[in-house]
């Protein structure tokens, strides 16, 4: 009996493992990791600033920091930048003749940060210096450096914003020689499962103790499948930043996933700040709450301290400051903002034709068909399976004839096959990552035995980029774009399914130092390839690259979008996609999405419908599925599911002008696309933890249905604004209080924020390209003062011509019953000139819908720019707003999009 219970318990655990899939024991925790064990929650040695060394010289506050126990010294530099960013650099004072080199640092030449940032330094002014501390200011920011023990306090506009080492957890391990024979936990070699990490350089970890006085909420640190407001980690695992290919990840866990951005945002009423540690080694971050303060500890395995403190003071400024360091989001190909259809795998050319024509048959728009690994000849990327895809060029051209594009997958592992040209060339040039003995590293991945391109080497990236030329990549056309997967990198037989840390990269750099950068460099090389190809095929204005990546780091936003990897078709993964994408949004990587429907498993009609209804508002919108799942193209769920999914995807296309304009704002000033509610309502404390609804830009609030079988959702509409139901145009009362809102399966609750003007294109089309000449509808949703504003950005949607002014950016304002169209003033130092995109002159506004006009018994007349008068239609019978009170529609106003004009409304007496 007892034995039966034991064995059935074991069997149950086994079943649990099978069903959850996630193999926790394959991944390290803090306790399995020497540098985390050595530092987590432990007081560091005493570090003092040698007070006689502390001085300001121009742009830098410099000082020597000394480990008082070990007698080792470190050079400390604090710089101020004109945008309000403070940068703290700490490196060890090393003698390279003893140490065989220096600690690894990411320099501007690595293209992770922008070299232009270095030139924005601004002088410090010394306020006071005593034997205890030195106080310096720059603009609104004051920094106090306390000497013994070392502490730093940052004050913004008189408010304490951040303190460093207030709990004494700071540590920076110094270089030592193995011969010194110092006992040290996990310093010289470490074994996890069957893997031993030889640590030739010994210990070099750092622990940063960063506290946020008065901040109850911190956000960011992607990628984790967990809550948006970061939960305290006391008693559990710290958040881990280590790019890993995690099979069937959990919907709630601090474990590291595919990408890492060591950036945290702290927000409270009146102040938002950010912290970014430019370091690509493995990192653990603890969060603890003490009263209304948040304390954090950041522990990294190697490298230097290069810490950026963004002093806001508002959420938008923090994003702009971060973008100034790591770059703003690239302007995407407009097609990539449409709907993508992916599956592992669309089997062959006939299958692709079937799916493509299925969209037309069911009148569902889509832009891109995707081909996963099975399209290749034996997982040799940049080749085709000649039986399944004998005519890839014809295939792409056929898809393109309907205004659509094709994407193929290309991964960084290279099959070790001497007859494969990529392998041959890379091997003979020595372009692979090396093992510690100096030979090419060999690991196991999809093709079997593989080597990995050392993309940390700019020469290898340049070579890799050339492989995308049309005459190199056989079977490719200018309508083919790329998907980079497995670039964490994934190594099936490596520790934690990735590379061992003692592998060697270009410049004798250990993998340990650059692990979290590898995916970015691979993504960068691939995108550079498509950019080069674009100039070859399209001439001087080129063609914007489109490359989706799974792994990422800070700077990825300049390269292309990411998705949140291999999620699961269940309701919890649907829900966690929102905090995951919000975290990416506030850490400068807004172009991101989760696989709609869930990668693993089979969604039922309800889940796939709800997921598409949410996906409509993801910045990146793609349906994808695992090899072993049932087919799930949108029409396979039958009616009424197909009609509902059609409506959701069509709504995405209707919002295309608005969403594309949001991308331009991300491109100019790093603003997120999907935003937490507090981003627009920064003083509303009750919104600081909200993660089940969000804003798309500033104008649209989305409150998706995240549970099965519900007929209402609890909704909080932020107070201080008017809200209009986006489906009916009706104004919703009761902002500020939770409201039970009825829902049905036709749609999810979505609202226009009063004070916004949202441009739309209402005609259903096959793809974004087919919308380019369509007229616009302006939704003018009024605030309490009967005012509203919004903008519209237009360009050719595909080339770099916008960089030389080939764009049109308009601003619409409604005030005093007058609607005006004028040139948009970007308010940016980067974009100062006014663009002009000739085709915009032929585009018109075909409809203006006013929501929430002052009540009038008799209606409105519009006085048009040419002096004629047109009556507005109440709710306009043929619009979906026919039932809405105070909704008025101006039809066929024939207003040029690219022209300045004023339309004045006159209320009938
Ligand atoms: C310096 O490098 C040499 C050759 O790589 C190695 O044998 C030696 O152990 C290294 N010394 C230190 C202090 O790391
Ligand atoms: C916008 O994106 C392009 C790449 O598409 C990039 O070159 C540019 O620096 C970005 N920012 C601005 C302000 O143009
Ligand atoms: C309305 O105008 C007043 C005065 O200009 C301003 O204080 C208030 O914030 C405005 N309200 C809205 C909702 O914009």
TrEMBL record:
Signal peptide residues on this chain, from the entry's feature table: 1-21
Its pathway, per UniProt, is: Glycan metabolism; N-glycan metabolism
PROSITE patterns attached here? GLYCOSYL_HYDROL_F31_1
Q: Which Pfam families match?
A: Gal_mutarotas_2, Glyco_hydro_31_2nd, Glyco_hydro_31_3rd
Establish whether keyword Cell inner membrane is in the entry.
no
What are the residue boundaries of the Glycoside hydrolase family 31 N-terminal domain, all occurrences included? 78-286
Q: What sections of the sequence does the record tag as coiled-coil?
A: none
What Gene3D superfamilies does UniProt report for this protein, alphabetically? Answer: Glycosidases, glycosyl hydrolase (family 31), Golgi alpha-mannosidase II
Tell me, what is an example of a GO biological process annotation in this record? carbohydrate metabolic process
The reply on keyword Cell membrane is no
Residues in Glycosyl hydrolase family 31 C-terminal domain copies? 670-758
Q: Which domain of life is it from?
A: Eukaryota
InterPro entries xref list: Gal_mutarotase_sf_dom, GH, Glyco_hydro_31_AS, Glyco_hydro_31_C, Glyco_hydro_31_N_dom, Glyco_hydro_31_TIM, Glyco_hydro_b
State the family it belongs to: Belongs to the glycosyl hydrolase 31 family.
Q: What's the protein name? A: Glucosidase II subunit alpha
Organism, per UniProt? Chlamydomonas eustigma
């Amino acid at each position: 009996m007892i034995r039966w219970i034991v064995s059935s318990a074991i069997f149950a655990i086994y079943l649990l493992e099978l069903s959850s899939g996630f193999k926790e024991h394959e991944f390290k925790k803090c306790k399995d990791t020497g540098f985390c064990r050595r530092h987590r929650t432990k007081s560091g040695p005493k570090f003092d600033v040698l007070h006689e060394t502390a001085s300001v010289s121009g742009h830098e506050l410099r000082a020597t920091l000394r480990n008082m126990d070990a007698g080792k010294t470190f050079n400390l530099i604090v710089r101020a930048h004109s945008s309000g960013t403070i940068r703290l650099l700490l490196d060890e004072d090393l003698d390279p003749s003893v140490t065989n080199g220096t600690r690894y640092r990411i320099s501007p030449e690595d293209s992770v940060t922008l070299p232009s940032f270095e030139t924005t330094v601004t002088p410090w002014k010394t306020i006071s210096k005593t034997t205890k501390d030195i106080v310096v200011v720059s603009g609104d920011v004051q920094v106090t450096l306390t000497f013994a023990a070392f502490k730093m306090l940052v004050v913004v506009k008189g408010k304490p914003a951040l303190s460093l080492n207030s709990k004494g957890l700071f540590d920076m391990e110094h270089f030592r020689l193995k011969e010194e024979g110092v006992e040290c936990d996990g310093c010289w070699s470490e074994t996890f499962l069957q893997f031993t990490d030889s640590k030739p350089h010994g210990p070099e970890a750092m622990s940063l103790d960063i506290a946020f006085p008065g901040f109850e909420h911190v956000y960011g640190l992607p990628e984790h499948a967990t809550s948006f407001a970061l939960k305290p980690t006391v008693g559990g695992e710290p958040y881990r930043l280590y790019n890993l290919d995690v099979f069937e990840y959990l919907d709630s866990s601090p474990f590291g996933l595919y990408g890492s951005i060591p950036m945290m945002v702290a927000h409270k009423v009146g102040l938002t700040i950010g912290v970014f540690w430019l370091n690509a080694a493995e990192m653990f971050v603890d969060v603890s709450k003490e009263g209304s303060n948040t304390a954090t500890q950041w522990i990294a395995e190697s490298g230097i301290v290069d810490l950026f403190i963004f002093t806001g003071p508002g959420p938008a400024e923090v994003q702009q400051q971060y973008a100034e360091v790591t770059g703003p989001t690239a302007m995407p190909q407009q097609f990539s903002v449409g709907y993508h259809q992916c599956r592992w795998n669309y089997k062959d050319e006939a299958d692709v034709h079937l799916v493509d024509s299925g969209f037309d048959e069911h009148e569902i728009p889509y832009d891109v068909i995707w081909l996963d690994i099975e399209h290749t000849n034996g997982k040799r990327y940049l080749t085709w399976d000649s039986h399944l895809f004998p005519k890839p060029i014809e295939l792409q051209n056929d898809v393109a004839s309907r205004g659509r594009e094709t994407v193929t997958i290309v991964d960084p592992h290279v099959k070790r096959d001497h007859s494969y040209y990529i392998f041959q060339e890379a091997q003979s040039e020595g372009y692979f990552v090396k093992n510690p003995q100096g030979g090419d590293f060999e690991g196991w991945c999809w093709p079997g035995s593989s080597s990995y391109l050392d993309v940390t080497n700019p020469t290898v990236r340049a070579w890799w980029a050339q492989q995308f030329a049309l005459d190199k990549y056989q079977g490719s056309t200018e309508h083919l774009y790329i998907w980079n997967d497995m670039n964490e990198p994934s190594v099936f037989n490596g520790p934690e399914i990735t590379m061992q840390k003692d592998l060697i990269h270009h410049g004798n750099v250990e993998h340990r130092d650059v692990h979290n950068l590898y995916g970015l460099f691979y993504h960068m090389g691939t995108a550079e390839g498509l950019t080069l190809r674009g100039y070859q095929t399209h001439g001087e204005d080129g063609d914007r690259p489109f490359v989706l990546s799974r792994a990422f780091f800070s700077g990825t936003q300049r390269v292309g979008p990411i998705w949140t990897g291999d999620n699961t078709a269940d309701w919890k993964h649907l829900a966690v996609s929102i905090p995951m994408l919000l975290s990416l949004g506030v850490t400068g990587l807004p172009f991101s999405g989760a696989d709609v429907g869930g990668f693993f498993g089979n969604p039922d009609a309800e889940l796939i419908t709800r997921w598409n209804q949410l996906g409509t508002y993801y910045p990146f919108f793609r349906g994808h599925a695992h090899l072993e799942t049932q087919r799930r193209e949108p029409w396979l769920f039958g009616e009424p599911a197909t009609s509902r999914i059609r409506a959701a995807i069509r709504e995405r296309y209707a919002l295309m002008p608005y969403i594309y304009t949001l991308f331009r704002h991300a491109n100019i000033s790093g603003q997120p696309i999907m935003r937490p509610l507090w981003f627009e309502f920064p003083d509303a404390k009750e919104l600081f933890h909200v993660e089940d609804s969000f804003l798309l830009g500033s104008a649209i609030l989305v409150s998706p249905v995240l549970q099965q079988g519900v007929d209402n959702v609890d909704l909080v509409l932020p107070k201080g604004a008017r809200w209009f139901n986006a489906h009916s145009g009706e104004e919703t009362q009761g902002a500020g209080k939770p409201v039970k809102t009825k829902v049905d399966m036709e749609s999810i609750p979505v609202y226009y924020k009063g004070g916004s003007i949202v441009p739309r294109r209402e005609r259903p089309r096959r793809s974004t390209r087919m919308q380019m000449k369509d007229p616009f509808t302006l939704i003018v949703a009024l605030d309490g003062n009967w005012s509203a504003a919004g903008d519209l950005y237009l360009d050719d949607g595909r080339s770099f011509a916008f960089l030389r002014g080939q764009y049109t950016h308009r601003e619409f304002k409604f005030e005093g019953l007058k609607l005006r169209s004028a040139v948009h003033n970007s308010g940016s130092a980067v974009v100062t000139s006014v663009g002009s995109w000739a085709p915009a002159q032929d585009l018109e506004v075909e409809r203006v819908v006013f929501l929430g006009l002052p009540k009038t018994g008799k209606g409105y007349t519009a006085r048009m720019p040419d002096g004629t008068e047109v009556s507005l239609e109440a709710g306009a019978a043929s619009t979906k707003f026919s039932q809405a009170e105070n909704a008025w529609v101006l039809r066929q106003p024939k207003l040029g999009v690219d022209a300045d004009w004023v339309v004045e409304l006159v209320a009938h007496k």
